[in-house]
Amino acid sequence: MAGATLIVTALSIFSLYSAAIDQHRLRLTELAGSQARLIEAIAQLDSRQTGAIDFDAALDKVAAAHAEFKGFGESGEFALAQRVGDQIVFLIRRKRENSTGLTSIPYHGEWAKPMQRALEGRSGIMVGLDYRGAEVLAAYEPVSILELGLVAKIDTAEIQAPFLRAAVLALAAAVLVIFTASQLFFRVSRPIMAAIDQQAETFLTLAETALEGIILANTRGEIQFANRAAEKLFGYRKDELLGEKVNCLMPPDRAREHDGYLQRYLQSGIPHIVGTGRQLIAMRKDGSRFPIYLSIGDIDVDHVRLFAGVILDLSEQQQLQREILEVPVREQRRIGQELHDGLGQQLTGLGLLATSLLNKASKPEHELASKLASGLQDAIAQVRALSRGLMPVDIDTDGFVSALQNLVTSIRAHSNLSVRLRIHDRIEVSDSFVAMHLYRLAQEAINNAVKHADAERIEVELGLAERRGYLTISDNGVGITPQATDGDGLGLRIMKQRCGMIDAELDIDSSREAGTRVQCRFPVDNG
Length: 527
Prior knowledge:
Number of strands: 16
Distance between the termini: 59 Å
Number of helices: 13
Shape: rod-shaped
Order of helices and strands: HHEEEHEEEHEEHHHEEEHHHEHEEHHEE
Helix content: 40-55%
Structural class: alpha+beta
Low-confidence stretches: 96-100
Strand content: 15-25%
Number of domains: 4
Mean pLDDT: 78
Largest sheet: 6 strands, antiparallel
Radius of gyration: 52 Å
């Protein structure tokens, strides 16, 4: 603001100075021209009266006419001269005070350039040195009839003086205003700056002492801040992170997706990962991968826009979750094994006895023995089915698709619904842990559709899209409530946890008109 004020003031003074120069140019040009024509008129008048030009008489009349010349300004001067050999001889010099000093100067010298031009028969105006060596603004005219030169001039220093004084005063006033404004500004802003510094220090203290990793990135995805927890979490030093793309903390197959999410959000304002929290797989400096929970916030303050990421390491939590999930699996295995080996074997033995009794029974007891044997066979079948349901399916990487087919066939047989499996692409899942969780997720989604959706048709789809596999379970039922899709239901929470443990994404779309669609996008090894 101060610089702008000084520039405006300087431009204003310069404009006024240019206008003053133009005015002096016009005045001097008119003065020199009118005086030259007046002298020529006097000489011509004498020549008509006497029949010849009397140089001395004409010069005396001009001198008498200019005796009372008041001049103009402090340095304004009217000079009349002739060339005598190599000298310029001044005949008349009139200013506010009668001029004294030099009466002649060398014709070819650097001084008195305006008079040289006048004596050469030229007319005009210029800035140059006069006979004193002072810089002047001078208008020059020839007096041809007397072979004289005439110059009307004024010192440029006199023209500049008021503007220099104005510039000095303006500069002094500007400095005073700037100083006063600065003092006022600092008096007002000092408490504000202190408060901002205090807030910044508080944030830095909180960030550096937080157990969670905190990273700030700009709109280009470049890291601007990382706290100590983030350094420890990823194995980088702070100076190694600052200025780097935030996707360097992600596996290569996820880095490109993150850039796409960020650009889409900046262009459309529709959040996908911003403003939410989600489970992801991150990558340390040494290349090792680990699960995290990432929350991203949008900070837009005073033309500064940053994205804040809070990162929680889920390694221990997911290990605990795995152990917790293994508890009911082990218990189911135990109960299923006991049903199969204990109760199942006893019922099988009783079935054999009933069959033997049936063969030996007389006609009155034959019907009763037949019902007993049939009932035992049904009980054995139910126990075996219950045992198979409780015994966890051992899903290896090659048997994942077969397990899905068996699951769909079993659900179709027991529910009398139209359940179809569509395999669009060959999926390679090298991790049996991932395969098991995908199977359990499909089992949970299909069972929900059978029990709660009142659906007539269920479709299971498996394929590839954008370098990730997808498993989709959709039905044409009545849908589920918005509260349930937000994760309030226990079954949906378990499905989301399973997805988080295998670096997968879970999307649930539901409406009363279109039914429910559950899709899990998971990492694959197809390349």
